[in-house]
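Why run this: before we spend reagent on co-expression, it is cheaper to look at a predicted model of the complex and decide which construct boundaries make sense. The entries below are exactly what would go into the expression plan.
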Amino acid sequence: MTLSTPIGQVPRIGAAYEAKLRKMGITTVRDLLFHFPRTYVDFSTITPIRDLKEGEVYCVSGTLLDIKETRTFRKRVSLITALVEDKTGAIKILWFNQPYLVDSLKPKDEIYLAGKVVRDKEGIYISNPVHEKAGGGLSAQAGKSLTHVGRIIPVYPETIDVSSRWLRSIIKMVLAQVKEMPETLPQEMLRERNFIPIQKALWQIHFPDSMEQAQQASRRFSFEELFYILLFILAERKKIAQVKAPVIPFDETVMKRFTGKLPFQLTDDQKKAAWYILKDMEKPRPMNRLLEGDVGSGKTVVAAMAMLSAVKAGYQAALLAPTEILAQQHHKTVAKVLTPFKITIGLLTGKTDRFISPKLPNDYIEISRSKLLEKVKNNEVQVLIGTHSLIQDTVKFGNLALVVVDEQHRFGVKQRARLLHRTTLIPHLLSMTATPIPRTLAMTLYGDLDLTLITQLPNGRKQIITRVVPPAGREKAYEAIAEQIAQGRQAFVICPRIERTEKSPKDVEVKTVKEEYEKLSKEIFPDLRIEMLHGKMATKEKEGIMRKFKFGKIDVLVSTSVVEVGVDIPNATVMMIEGADRFGLAQLHQFRGRVGRAEHQSYCFLFSESNSFFARKRLKALEESSSGFELAERDLHIRGPGDFAGTKQWGIPDFAMQQLTNLELVEQAREAAKMILEKDITLKNYPLLREKVADFRERLHLE
Ligand code: ADP
Ligand code: MG
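The model came back. C-alpha cells follow.
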C-alpha cells in the first residue's frame, strides 16, 4: 500500500464505504491520511474503579464479568448490562440501544471503557461507554495496542455516513501498512525548524502520544501547506519580474490637469494610491497591484488616472468589470473624466457595443462588434471597457499596456493569467476590490500582488447610521423607510433566502425574498413600487430590475445577496437586512456600502430574530465600526477564513485555511519559501517541491 493507492483497494473498505469516502473528497490513501482530526479527547488516564465518582467521565480497564441483554418495559429499547472488575473493585455498565454488542463482547474479555459515571434508579453505573478490547484484532495489527480508549483519541469532522470510530480504525490500520512515505519537506528545513518527519507526524496527528505532539504535528502540516502556496506565488512573481512591460512615463502635468478638472479634491489616500500606481508603470516590469478600498472610497478615479497615463504614452488600456451593468456604469463615468483629454473609449459587453469618440463627449454611437474590434486592433479605441467578453481570443489589442480589473476576486486567477499572456510586452495589471481582505489573507493569497489601501472616504460623505433592530423595533424601521421614500429616496431589503423550501417549512425565523415581497407590497407599503431580485431569475430579468432601480423606477427592492457589488445608486438611502445574523460581518458591510453613496444621510437596519448573545454582539460591531478592514479582521477571527473571496480557488485544505489567521506561521512559511528560491530558483534540487508548484500552476491555469 502506498499513498497513491485508491481507497477501493484498501482492505475492509467495501464499495459502500468507498462511495461514502468519495463524497467526502477522499479517493486515495493519501487523502485518507490527510483527513485530519477536528479535535481530540483525552482518554489516556486509566482510573482505578474504586476512585470513580459520579458525574465525571472516566476511562477504566478491567475484566468483563457478566454481560446480558434485557429489554425495557417498552420492549423497544435494547439494554445491555455488564459488570467490569479491576484489582480495586467493580462497577456496573449499561449500554442503551446497542444490541449488537452482545455478539462482540464476552465474559472474561479484557476491556477498556470510557464513559460517564451516573447514579439513578438503576444504581451507580457507567453509561453508554466507548469500549475497546485489549490487544485484540486490528489494534494488534497496527502495532499500537489501543485505538478508541486508554489514549488520546482523534475525533474527525462530523459526517452522517462515516463515524469517527470507523475512521479511527481504518486510518490506524492504513498508517501501519503504508510502507513508503517519502518526506515532502527538504531535510534541512526539518532540521532548522524542528519539524517532525512526515511519517511520525502523520501518526502523531491521528494518534498523538501527547497533546503537545499533536500540536507539533499540526504545526508541521499547516506550515507545509502555507509554504507550498507561498513557494508557488513567489516563484510566479520571480518569473514575471523577468518579463518586460511597456514603460509609461509619469507625466505630472497631465495628471495635474486631470485632477484640476475634477469636481472634487482627491483624498490623500487616492493621491497616494495613484502615485504608487503611476510609479509602478514607469518601470519596465509588469505592475501587479491590488487596490483595496472600501465601497465609495473612489477607486474608479484612481484607475482613470492610470488609464490616462497609459493612453498619453501612446498605449491602450482595458477595464474589466464583473457585470454588464457595472461595465456600463464605468463606461459612463470614465468617459466623463477622460473625454476632455480627447480619448476614445469603447464598450464591449456581449450584447450592445458602444464607442465614444472625442467629438461626442456625452454621447455614444452604437457600432457593430466587428467594427469595434477593428478599432481596438488598430488603436482607434484607446480605452476599452467591458465584461468577461473582453478576454476572448477574438479581442485583439494593437497596443495594450494596462489592464484594470474591477472586483478582481470575481475573476479567476486563470483569467488574469490569460490576459497577461496575450501580448509580447506584458501589460501592467491593476486589480481593484471593495471586498476587504484581512491582511493575513492578502499576504498569503495575493502575495504576488503589491497592495495599496484606500482607507479614507471622500470628504463630506456622511457616516451611515447603523442600528441593530430587535423585533419590537420593526414598526419604527418601516416608518423610517416610508419617510425616506416620501423624500424621494429608495430602499433595499435583503433577505437570507429566496423562498421557503420544503425541507424548512417550520424554519419560520428565516425571512425569504418572496414572502417579504408579498408582505411589503400588500400590507406594509401597498402604495409603493416594490420589486424583487434573486439568483433564480434570468440574468436579463435581473439586469432589467437593477436598471429600473438605478433610474428611480422602483422604491423598494427586496433582494437576496445577489444585489450587485459596486453598482452605484446614490439615491438609495436605506439598507434593511433581514436575518442579519446569518451573514458575515464583511458581507453585511458590503451591503451597507450600497447606500450612503451621495450627500443624503443614509441608514442601515440590521434585523435579527436571534436570541443569541453572541449573534447580537457580533452585529453590534457594525454599529461601532465603519471600517471594512476592521470588520473583515474580526470576521476572520470569529468565522475563520473559509468565507473570504478567492480562498476557494487555491483548493487549500481546511486545516491549512484555519492557519491563515496565524500571521507568524504565514511569515515563517514565506521566509522559508524565499530562502529556497534564492538558492535554487528553478527548484532543480527539490523535485518534490517542483512537482507541488507545477500542480498549483496546472490547477490554476486549467480550472
Ligand atoms: P468605489 O471605490 O466604490 O469604486 P467610486 O469610484 O465608484 O467608488 O466612487 C464613488 C463616488 O465617489 C463616485 O461618484 C465618485 O465620483 C465620488 N468620488 C470619488 N473620489 C471622490 C473625492 N475625493 N471626493 C468626493 N467624491 C469622490
Ligand atoms: Mg467601484
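The radius of gyration is 31 Å. Residues 137-143 have pLDDT under 50 and may be disordered. Bring this page to Monday's planning discussion.
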